[in-house]
Specification:
Blueprint: H1 19-38, H2 51-56, H3 63-74, H4 77-90, H5 97-122, H6 127-135, H7 138-170, H8 180-201, H9 204-232, H10 235-246, H11 266-280, H12 284-291, H13 296-305, H14 307-317, H15 319-326, H16 337-345, H17 348-386, H18 392-416, H19 419-433, H20 437-445, H21 451-470, E1 484-486, E2 493-495, H22 496-517
Antiparallel strand pairs: 1-2
Helix pairs in contact: 1-8, 1-9, 1-17, 3-9, 3-12, 3-13, 3-17, 4-7, 4-15, 4-17, 5-11, 5-13, 5-14, 6-7, 6-20, 7-8, 7-17, 7-18, 7-19, 8-17, 8-18, 9-15, 9-17, 10-15, 12-17, 16-17, 17-18, 19-22, 21-22
Length: 556
């Protein structure tokens, strides 16, 4: 999920170790580690050395597995840390995540079943596979693939940042004064475990672990929303304290935030919510979880029940106000607000459960993201440009290795760079990934757009979005200080990604008219109208896609 930047320093001093909480955390961590390795045998096919099995779980997941998988994928550990932390820091602005997760499900109901059908019939593993097949353009496919990789890498890094926040509060990581071994060893262990079971089990590992992760998250939120307000004197006291605290002027001379968004923030709030909703299912990991389902009906059912997570997110967001009322000591790092609130408010054993929920909440999306990135590289870089005759077994081996390299890169990012940099790149990722929407969603409904026009529109959106984000300053940063800037021609402050998307569409439409008038070659469309409504049982669509047909039209 896209998150707002936190304009606070990210350094924190280590605290004493909470032994009971740490023991509970380790127990759950070991339990899901065992589950991760056992998942390799869960519904394993006889021919498992291919991307359909390793990278999409055999395309066999039903409604409930898909629901837990998508929930575990979209509502990440960083979401659980950053959304209430943004509300703790700035107030109402952080609530944009709630309406955007409500908006997204009617949107995806219109196009995800079509993507599932055409992908299942033709053996597409990634969105770039579809774009290449639809528009007959490897260049456009590569642009979509590279955008997905760029947007996913910092997202993986932020899952590790979420784990590190928990370790800091537990007293076993983080501190700037600690030597590198003490500071980073717990994170290295968590990374090694994640890398090992993802390599071994593929998408089945996070699918199985997601049941534990989501169960723990729901348990913790329900307890927190009842127990903590009782200790703090009720929601009336909580909102009163939040209103007074947010009204205090900060270093910029302006109030720290607002309990409710004022008229000057409405454009920023609305455009950020809408742009984030449009972008969420452009991310490779969202599509990977979707394509792992067994039928179109599974997708439809999930669009109707996934909003339950939005309810949970709304309750989670209120924890930011609770942290204000509780006077939570974040030690200059707003991302510690919720883990520290849990340690302060809960008995040690239940604080351990809460920390486990956040920690496991990082493992599930990080695994899916690394698999999605590996699928993209393998199919749309390695096979398309480096080894066109790669066998399913070779694709399988390359994808497993790339999934390791992606996680190593994310770990290096976290260990060697200021965490603010990771946040900046994740904000850029949301702006970038939105620029793939015209090619993907547009292509699912029409082939009117010209492939070269789509590529030009993508380039304009990417360049404008990056430069506009570079020019945004904050009290602590000269560049990439946020994701909102002035909207050209309107003068209001709004989400950069949505402005870049509008420019992208305008350029695409205008150039399509021009290129069609010039009769520029449009490439070959390997899909047919019936592909977009096909379901299991139809000609060429089977419940278990044979590995030999991966990358080629099934049933042909």
């Amino acid at each position: 999920m896209t998150t707002t930047p936190l304009t606070t320093t990210l350094a924190a001093a280590p605290q004493g170790v909470n032994g009971v909480a740490l023991a509970v955390f380790v127990f759950f961590f070991l339990a899901v580690t065992v589950m991760g390795f056992l998942a390799a045998r869960w519904r394993k096919a006889e021919q498992s050395a291919n991307l359909d099995e390793w990278g999409l779980g055999g395309r066999s997941f039903g409604t409930w597995v898909t629901w837990f998988l998508l929930g575990g994928d979209l509502y990440t550990a960083y979401t659980f840390v950053a959304v209430p932390a943004a509300i703790y820091t700035a107030g109402a602005a952080g609530f944009f995540a709630v309406p955007y997760t409500i908006l997204v499900y009617p949107l995806i109901f219109t196009f995800l079943p079509r993507l599932w059908s055409v992908s299942h019939r033709h053996g597409y593993v990634t969105t770039s596979d579809f774009v290449r097949g639809r528009f007959g353009s490897k260049g456009l496919s590569l642009a979509v693939a590279l955008t997905g990789l760029l947007a996913t890498m910092p997202y993986i890094a932020l899952q590790l940042v979420g784990i590190q926040a928990v370790l800091d509060v537990l007293g076993v990581g983080g501190g700037a004064d600690a030597n590198w071994f003490v500071k980073d060893l717990p994170l290295l262990i968590a990374f090694a475990v994640l890398a090992a079971y993802t390599y071994s089990s593929g998408l089945r590992a996070p699918a199985l672990i997601a049941f534990v992760k989501d169960g723990l998250i729901y348990l913790v939120i329900v307890v927190a929303i009842i127990y903590i307000p009782i200790k703090l004197g009720g929601f009336g006291e909580i909102f009163h304290a939040a209103k007074d605290t947010l009204a205090v002027h900060g270093p910029t001379g302006k109030p720290r935030g607002e309990l409710a968004s004022g008229p000057n923030a409405q454009w920023a709030y609305a455009t950020l919510a809408l742009g984030s909703a449009l972008a969420l299912f452009m991310y490779p990991h969202s599509i990977t979880a979707t394509l792992s389902s067994r039928s179109r009906n599974v997708i439809r059912r999930n669009t109707t029940i996934l909003p339950l997570y939005s309810l949970m997110l709304g309750l989670l967001a209120l924890l930011g106000f609770m942290a204000i009322k509780a006077g939570t000591d974040t030690r200059g790092n707003a991302q510690l607000a919720i883990p520290q609130l849990f340690e302060d408010m809960f008995p040690s054993w239940f604080a351990g459960v809460a920390f486990a929920a956040i920690g496991i909440g990082a493992l599930v999306p990080a695994a899916i993201m690394s698999i999605a990135a590996a699928n993209l590289f393998t199919r749309n870089v390695y096979k398309d440009f480096l080894k066109p005759d790669a066998t399913p077994e070779q694709e399988h081996k390359v994808a497993k290795l790339v999934s390791l390299l992606v996680k190593v890169g994310a770990l290096a990012f976290v260990l060697t760079m200021d965490k603010t940099v990771a946040i900046n790149f994740q904000l850029l990722g949301g702006i970038w990934i939105l620029q793939t929407m015209p090619a993907l969603v547009g292509g699912l409904f029409t082939r009117w757009f010209h492939r070269w026009a789509l590529l030009a529109g993508w380039a304009v959106g990417m360049v404008y979005g990056t430069l506009a984000a570079y020019g945004v300053a904050s009290p602590t940063q000269k560049h990439f200080g946020g994701s909102n800037a002035q909207i050209p021609g309107i003068g209001e402050i709004g989400y950069i990604g949505l402005t870049a998307f509008v420019l992208n569409v305008v350029v695409t439409v205008v150039l399509t008219f021009v290129l069609k008038a010039l009769k520029a070659p449009e490439g070959t469309d390997e899909t047919s109208p019936g592909d977009y409504t096909a379901d299991v049982g139809d000609a060429g669509v089977t419940a278990d896609l044979p590995p030999a047909t991966a990358g080629a039209p099934a049933g042909h």
